[in-house]
Amino acid sequence: MANLPAAEISADAALVSQLVREQHPHLGGQDLEQVASGWDNYIYRLGTEYAIRLPRRKSAAGLTANEQRWLPQLTADVPVPTSAPLFCGAPCELYPWPWSITVWFDGQDVSLSPRDRNVALAEPLAGFLNAFHRPAPPDFPRNPFRGGPLSGRDEAVQGRLNSGMVPHAARVQELWEEAQDIPAWTGPPLWLHGDLHPANLVAKDNTLQAVIDFGDLTAGDPATDLAAAWLVFDAEGRDIFRRSLGSQYDGDPHVWERARGWAICMATILLANSDDAPGLYLVGSETLMEILTGDRERF
Q1: C-beta atoms surrounding 94 within 10 Å
Q2: How far apart are alpha carbons 139 and 161 in whole angstroms?
Q3: Are the C-beta atoms of residues 270 and 197 closer than 8 Å to each other?
Q4: pLDDT tens digits for range 43-90
Q5: Would you tell me the crossing angle of helices 169-179 and 255-272 to the nearest 10 degrees?
Q6: Coiled coil where (predicted)?
Q7: 176: how many CB neighbours lie within 10 A of its CB?
Q8: Looking at per-residue confidence, does 249 or 87 come out higher?
Q9: Of the candidates 60, 24, 19, the residue with the CA atom closest to the CA atom of residue 42
Q10: Which of 258, 188, 270 is closest to 232 using CA atoms?
């Protein structure tokens, strides 16, 4: 399986502490602890209230810049807290890329919870999407991997299906090939989170505490985000999620078929790239089981 991409820059605690003191001195002097080093970002906890996200690869720096430009205004009136930047860090001699300070959420990564408990998240996640899926302006950030037609992901998905990393690949391939013939989204490009899987949701006290990590922020087909119906939920949660969504998708009779196609795409990504993240591998495996056991669900 693929390994986590190598970091292209180091950002240790001493450097991060100095960045905070120089650019946001009112936040300096608080305890600082590295809590994660993910695919794109280093994550530090600052004091008890804040998190710091710093790109570990150049390709992620542009994603951080997109978050800084767009997220504060896009999430100002959504009903669920998000990881929108509270304070923006600028490139400097110490560190060449933009970085952000966000709220620290002390709940649990939803990928660590049994799927049947996620039913309580269905209504609040639908409420978030009802508010967030609004038409985007012409200069929205482009993303070649999210929001477009499923045909644009065919080569990558076929490669993963032929890799030996995806269980039940023959049946999954049949469903994926059926998805290639589904009519495309004809509405306006809607704002998308772009990566709405359980590890980017935080739960606390049996409800949705936050939606985080908008690095794949873009606009396009809302089916990209509606794939959460399979990525996050079992059949009961999926039903509540779908019934709790607004009417902005009612004019497209094929949106849920495409959403299942996007769920297949995302599940194969998780299965092929999560050898160092067993929780995400489990999300990919469970998602495929939701799709395969319910592949006759009516849309």
Answers
A1: 12
A2: 34
A3: yes
A4: 999 999 999 999 999 999 999 999 999 999 999 999 999 999 999 999
A5: 140
A6: none
A7: 22
A8: 87
A9: 60
A10: 270
Which residue is listed with tokens 């599940």?
Answer: 267
CA distance 26 to 10: 24
Determine the angle formed by the axes of helices 278-293 and 255-272, rounding to 10 degrees: 140
User: What is the DSSP track for the chain?
Assistant: -PPPPPPSS---HHHHHHHHHHH-GGGTTS-EEEEEE-SSEEEEEETTTEEEEEESSHHHHHHHHHHHHHHHHHTTT-SS-B---SEEEPP-SS--S-EEEEE---SEEGGGS-GGGGGGGHHHHHHHHHHH--BPPTTPPP-TTSSS-GGGGHHHHHHHHTTT-STTHHHHHHHHHHHTTSPPP-SPPEEE-S--SGGGEEEETTEEEEE---TT-EEE-THHHHTHHHHT--HHHHHHHHHHS-STTTT-TTHHHHHHHHHHHHHHHHHHS-TT-HHHHHHHHHHHHHHHHTTT---
| Model pTM above 0.85 | yes
